Amino acid sequence: QETILKVEDLKKYFPIKGGILKRTVGNVKAVDGVTFDVKQGETLGIVGESGSGKSTLGRMILRLLEPTEGKVLFEDHDITHLSHKKMRPFRKEMQIVFQDPFASLNSKMSVEQLIEEPMIIQTDMGKKERKKRINYLLEKVGLRASDRLKYPHEFSGGQRQRISIARALANNPKFVIADEAVSALDVSIQAQVLNLMSDLQEDLGLTYLFISHDLSVVKHISDRVGVMYLGRLAEIAPKHAIYKEPLHPYTQALLSAIPDTDVDLEKEKVKLEGDLPSPSNPPSGCAFRTRCPMAHDKCAEVRPELQHMGDGHYVACHLYDEEQ
Ligand code: SF4
Ligand code: MG
């Protein structure tokens, strides 16, 4: 399987200004050294609490936000520092679907205009061709041809998300980031939209980066899952390993919080206590140690790096160090 996207040691620090002179007094390390790749045609789920840096990560990959450090490679092209102009061909290939279709869809534009806009901006398709493609896309996402003249407020949340998906697919991208794309929807509607996205993936050969705060949402659609904590990956592994044999205490805690999870945790249920520490002042060593029932001396002193445990399963935790 070919690699479509590579992220290398990606970082985003937001300066904190303080005092009357508004000098930089510190940094919020929203993303602090994230490395992974995504294979052509797969879905990588990225899970974490709000504040874990997962949306910042998604925006950096699409170059909606400049990384502080690190690299983004799309089909082996380093796109990290491309100018607006040089980025254009890549923008067509990489799209994003956001959480709230009400906020992300211009309410004054009809469905037709919403789907047509990216074609007008990014391609030189003629009008006839565009209309044909709009019909094709509406059918693909399960909307009616007669819906094209309606406006976003005339649709339910799930239908609006279908419009967002049609818009994202307007120019036939290869790679789509879904950022909490179903989080605002009822559970039954979530399942419908997730099924639609799976079908579209198979049909069109799409690759997904599926960002969510909810491990149960990414479960069915993902091939692999990465778990983020305070701007870093705690664990990344094939789906079955994450859900059946999670190694990181944080992943274990997230899973025990899901009601009827089928995880075979031999250990006591790990309960997640306390709040996410501030990313402007993260704990030394392992950022999870303030909430970790297994924390020991080394955890305060040394930051754990991802280590390969076999079969594509990586974990950043001192419990798995050799000299333990
Ligand atoms: Fe817990 Fe230590 Fe592992 Fe961090 S490194 S998750 S504190 S055991
Ligand atoms: Mg898949």
Automatic annotation (TrEMBL):
InterPro entries in UniProt: AAA+_ATPase, ABC_transp_ATP-bind, ABC_transporter-like_ATP-bd, ABC_transporter-like_CS, Oligopep_ABC_C, P-loop_NTPase
GO BP terms: peptide transport; transmembrane transport
Family, similarity comment: Belongs to the ABC transporter superfamily.
Pfam families reported in the protein's UniProt record: ABC_tran (PF00005), oligo_HPY (PF08352)
Protein name according to UniProt: Peptide/nickel transport system ATP-binding protein/oligopeptide transport system ATP-binding protein
CDD domains, sorted: ABC_NikE_OppD_transporters
Protein keywords: ATP-binding, Nucleotide-binding, Transport
Molecular function GO labels: ATP binding; ATP hydrolysis activity
NCBIfam families in the cross-refs: oligo_HPY, PRK11308.1
PANTHER family: D,D-DIPEPTIDE TRANSPORT ATP-BINDING PROTEIN DDPF-RELATED, TRANSPORT ATP-BINDING PROTEIN
UniProt feature coiled coil, ranges: none
Residues annotated as domain ABC transporter: 5-255
Gene3D superfamilies with a match to the protein in the record: P-loop containing nucleotide triphosphate hydrolases
Superkingdom of the source species: Bacteria
